[in-house]
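FIELD: query
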Amino acid sequence: MDENEIEKTRHSAAHILAQAVIRLFPDTKLGIGPVTKSGFYYEFDLPVKISKNQEKSFLEKVQSEIEQIIREELVFNQVFLPRDEAIDMLYQQGQIYKAELVQKIPDTEVSFFRTGNEFIDLCRGPHVTHTGRVHAVRLNKIRYEHWLDQTDRPKLIIIEGIAFASEAELEEYESDQSKLQTRGHQNKALELQLFNLKLEQGTFTHTILNNGVAIIRNIEEILVSKFAELDLQAMSFSNIWKKDALENHPLAETIVPAEVTTLGEDYIINADPFISLIDTWKIQNKNKYNLLPFRGLYFESNRLDIAQDGKTDAVIGLYSSNNIKSIGTFQVLEMEESFNSLKDLLLLAFSVYSKLLPGSFELLTYSNDRNFGGKVNEIASELNITHKRLESISEISEVRLVYTDAFSKDWILSEFAWFGKLNSSIAKYTETENMTIIQTEIVRNMERLLALVVEANDGRMPLAIAAVQVIVVAESEKEENYAKLIKSSLIDAEYRVELIVQKDETPTETEVGALKTPFILTIGGNEVSKNVVCVKRSTGEEWGLMDLEEFLQRLASIS
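FIELD: result
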């Protein structure tokens, strides 16, 4: 089955899932149900609560109904309704979320698909001819998210499933996923001496060890060196405010209530850094907003970001980290210049992430501005990655750089917000009517990024960020002096090096290899006599004997 057919199968499976849930719980309100890399999911506002202990039996019940609908071979038919009629129908059905989506569609007619005679869903298609053409479907997960990812909106239950052309392909996928579990960063934590997950103290507690801190620092240094090319002014700020100062701020209307956390009686945390960035810009420019253009690079630490209740797949290990250290930019530019800056930032982010994370990337654009969407499409073509354009519920256009990991889970690595024409309150406050703002988070959470890099590379850190890039192993004390010379030369060449002289109590070469340092140089009597080193990569690849100069040349070619 080709990619188009399997996508139609998964799309149809999402509709079947929705129909199954409606059959079981008729008062259910539907959210969205897109296709994923390996299957599909659908959002539901159920009329009943599903406890953690009930999730397994709930999925089994829905799975059984799905199989019944497949056996019925119900035909998929596309129908078009006038926009106003579609909204009225959805409200009559109690489908308030679907009605909200239709209200944002500018077309005079809206596409729906009927499944048999009992179920109709907002959809452009395409679908298979009938439900019996969907062969291998399995529900495998429940999670929870707020509607439209807005924390002040209702939290919906999300049912995820996988779908393939055959049962054999589905079982092969599940087998592969089971094997991948050993790559989880929790399993690699102490093995690689990166971090210690203190699970006995609670889900959100952990300690980043020396090697983990070094890797985070190395990633930051790479990013800062890249940012230096863009002439950005560095700044840092706190998002802790006195309550009355934030409430009386001229831009208080931009505050998202769900982003605010009370801190005692007099202080609050505003997780959205926008107002802090505006004020930092003012201070940096000596209280004048007309010093334009402005290009700022900001570092934000210790933002409160506890994972939401119910996100069972997001509260594991470093993915639950609330000790956020993010890196972003804040720029005030002329409109045309802003597009060039957006391109520079996207290229910068991709150039870094693509070297750290093997796998696939895509750009998601949320915008009602066609010119903006076209600009991002050009950037995606230059990067040779997929670009999906989605309608926005906001006047602000957003681009997200998304990475798909080995578990087929999507992660938002970077976010880019383009304000377009500034609204009146911002324009008045900043005195920048003919300018626009670009606010980005290049790294959303450094500790979560560390977890991703560990998993994506099966613990083998890319050379550029490894805490230790080369381990020099002297097989005995006889080779120690020569090994020290090799280490010194590598340090002079600005590599991070560790020396191990093997004795009874020191680790063997096999144990050293378990640390997955990018390169291991073994030095025995033969190497000393020939003035060479024996090179092995963490992947197991043998480079064999070579002199130090050749090794440095080969290192430089992959750095």
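FIELD: remark
The chain has a mean pLDDT of 84.
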